[in-house]
Amino acid sequence: MTRRALLALFSGALALSLTGGLTACGSAKEPDAGSAAPQEQQQASTRKFTDSCGREVELPANVTKIAASGPLAQQVLLTIAPEQMVGLSTKVGDKQLAYLGNGLSDLPVYGQIYGGKGDFNKEAVAEAKPDVIIDLGEAKKTIREDMDNLQSELGIPCVHIESSFDSYDQAYAKLGELLGKEDRAAELSSYCKKAYDEVKGVVSGLSESDRAQVAYLLGDSGLNAIAKGSFQGSVVDFVANNAIEVEKAGGSGKGVEVSLEQIAAADPKMIVFGPGSIYDSVADDPAWADVSAIKTGNYYQVPGTPYNWLSGPPSVNQVLGMQWLARICYPDKFQTGVEDVAKDYYKTFYGHELTDAELRDLLAGALPKN
Question: What's the predicted TM-score (pTM) here?
Answer without folding.
Answer: 0.86
